[in-house]
Amino acid sequence: MTAHAHPIASTASTTMLPQPYLLFLGDVTEAGFAKTAFGLRDWAADSCVGEYALPGATVSTGLVQLTPAQAAERGARSMLIGVANQGGIIPQGWRASLIEALNAGLDLVSGMHARLGEIPGLADEAARLGRQLIDVRVPPATLPIATGRKRVGKRLLTVGTDCALGKKYTALAIAGALSERGLANNFRATGQTGIMIAGGGIPMDAVVADFEAGAAEMLSPDADPDHWDIIEGQGSLFHPAYAGVSLGLLHGSQPDVFIVCHEPGRTTVLGAPGYDLPSIEEVIAATVMLGRRTNPDIRCGGISYNTSGLDADEADRLMAEDGERLGLPVADPIRGGPAFDKLVANCLA
Amino acid sequence: MTAHAHPIASTASTTMLPQPYLLFLGDVTEAGFAKTAFGLRDWAADSCVGEYALPGATVSTGLVQLTPAQAAERGARSMLIGVANQGGIIPQGWRASLIEALNAGLDLVSGMHARLGEIPGLADEAARLGRQLIDVRVPPATLPIATGRKRVGKRLLTVGTDCALGKKYTALAIAGALSERGLANNFRATGQTGIMIAGGGIPMDAVVADFEAGAAEMLSPDADPDHWDIIEGQGSLFHPAYAGVSLGLLHGSQPDVFIVCHEPGRTTVLGAPGYDLPSIEEVIAATVMLGRRTNPDIRCGGISYNTSGLDADEADRLMAEDGERLGLPVADPIRGGPAFDKLVANCLA
C-alpha cells in the first residue's frame, strides 16, 4: 500500500470530528494493530499533526513524535487512538496518556469496541475539563426512517464480492481522482476508519436495522446536480451475515453508479465457512436488480481489484483479461495508471 | 377477523415472557388502539386470564373483567399493556394501575415505544417488589454474528409484497394448521405482538444491522429433522426503508418454504409515496434468488391473500383466478376452507 495524500473533503452533517489529530500509538509492536494510524497517514495526512507513542512501541507512522502538549501547540484538536489490540479493549496502561491529552486541551477519538467512557475516571476527567470523548462506532442518536425520495446530485457506491477487500480505499481513491479533476465531491464514510479519515460519517453496521436505509439517506443529502457523493460500501449482498447492511446502504444511497470491489484469488467468504465467493457477474446482476428499486438508472461503472498479492505484470495481465471478458474497465486504484483513469472516466460517463 | 383459539407453542430460547397475562386496556375508546389486546385474545386465548379496563374505557375484548389482585389469584403472572395511544407514550393516568399490578405480584409487559423504566418511580417500585419490567421492543443484549451454517429441521418464512398485510397472521394460521395435523412446530415471533402471543421471540426491526441475520439464526435453532419453525416475516425486500431487515431475516432463517403475503387492491408501498407495489411474481423471484444463498432448496409454497376488503364470493373468484395464473395455491388463512388446506399441503409437500 503506497501513501496517498490528496485532500479528502470533510463530510456528513452527522458526527463532525475535531481535526487535526494527534495519532496515539500506545505501546504497539505489531504493524497490523496500527492499521487505523496508517490509514489516517495515507488518506488524511493534512489532518494529522504527528504521532504519540509510549516507551516500548516499535511501530511508527513516520510522522513527527509529539507529546499531547506539543501537538496542542501545533493546532491539534484531538488525540485519536490509532491502534487496536487483541479483543478491542483499551489497556489500563494507556489511561495516563489519555488523561494527559485531556489536560493538554485535546478531545479523545476512538473506534475501539470498548467505549472511552468505560475507562474508570475518564468521563469525570473529561467533564471537569470540558473535553469530549468521541466513540466513532456509536451512530447518531436520532435517525430517520427512509422515505425512498430521490435526492438531487450524483452518487457512487462501492460494493464487493465480500467484506474487507478494498471498498473504503476504492471510494477514497475515486474521491481523490474526482478532486484532481476539479469535480465537486464528498467521500461519505460508513465505517470507523473511513469516518476518522473524513472527519464524519455514520457507522452503518452499528445502526438499528429499521433505520439502516434512513441513515444512508441522511449520509448523502440533497446536493448540487453535478456534485458527486462517493459512498464507502459495507459487507456484501452475498455475505450470509451482512447482506442486510449492504442492502439498506444500497437502497438509501440510491447510487447512479457502483463499482464492484474484488480481491483476485479469494474464493471463500470471510467468516462463513462453506460459502463460495459470488462471481463479479452475480454481484453486478444482484446490485442492479435491487438497486433499481430506489434508482432505476443504476449502472456498474467498473471493477476495482485489490492486487496486493500479485506482481505488477501479473496484475496488469489479469485486469486486462477480466476487463475484456466483463466489458468493463478493471483497475487497481492503489496501482493507479491508465487503467484507473479509464475506470474513473467510465464512472463519470 | 374471526377469533382463533388453537394453541400456539411457546417459543424462542431468548426472551421468555411470564404468561398467562392480564390484558390492560387503560381508558381506551377506539378499538383500533386496542389491536394488541385483540391479537392476544384471538391467538393466545389460553395465555390470557382476563382484561383490566379503567373507568372511561368503552372498548372490551370480551374477556372477564379482573383487577390485578383477582388476576393474580387466577394465576396471572404479568399485566400486559394491550393498548396503544397516539405517539406511543404511556399516559400519566395509567401509572397508578401499573403500580397496583406490581403490588399484586404481577410483572409488567409492554410493546410501546416508550420504555416502562421511563415512567417516573416505576423502576424503583418494581425493584423494591422484586418484579420485572419487560419491554418487548428491546432485543436481547447479546446476539451472535451469523455463520450461515445450515441448521437441522424445517423452516417456513412468510414474506410480503409490503408491510402490514398479514405476515404474522399467516404464520400463526400455518402453525395452527400444523398443530391440528399433529405436526411438531413452533411459531417464531419477530415483532412485538407476535412475541407477546408466542411468549418469546426477537424484535427483528430493533436489532443492530450487523447482528440481524445472526439474530434470525438464533431465533430458529437446530431442531428435529421433521420439526417445522414457522417464522413471522418482517417488511419487504421491495420496501425502500425496510428491505435490509427482510434480507437479514431471510438469510438467517434459511427457509425451505416461503409464503408470499399480499393484500389485493393495494397498489402503492406503505409509507413510501411514489413506490408501486411489486408483483407477486417479482417477490417470488427475488426471494428465491436471495434466499438460495443460505438454503439452495428454497421454494415458494403458495400465496396468502388478506381479503378482508372483499366479500366471500369476490375473494373466492379472485383467489381461484390468481392461483391459476401463478400455478400456486392462493388462500386467505382467515377465511380458511379447502383453499387454505391446499396451501398448507403444498407447503408440506
Automatic annotation (TrEMBL), chains A, B:
Entries under SUPFAM superfamilies matching the protein: P-loop containing nucleoside triphosphate hydrolases
- Note the superkingdom of the native organism: Bacteria
InterPro entries documented for this protein: DgcN-like, DgcN-like_C, DgcN-like_N, P-loop_NTPase
Pfam annotation, one family: DUF1611
Record-annotated D-glutamate N-acetyltransferase-like N-terminal domain positions: 65-139
| D-glutamate N-acetyltransferase-like C-terminal domain span | 145-338
**Can you say what this protein is called?**
DUF1611 domain-containing protein
Q: Which source organism?
A: Sphingomonas aliaeris
The organism's taxonomy opens as: Bacteria, Pseudomonadati, Pseudomonadota, Alphaproteobacteria, Sphingomonadales
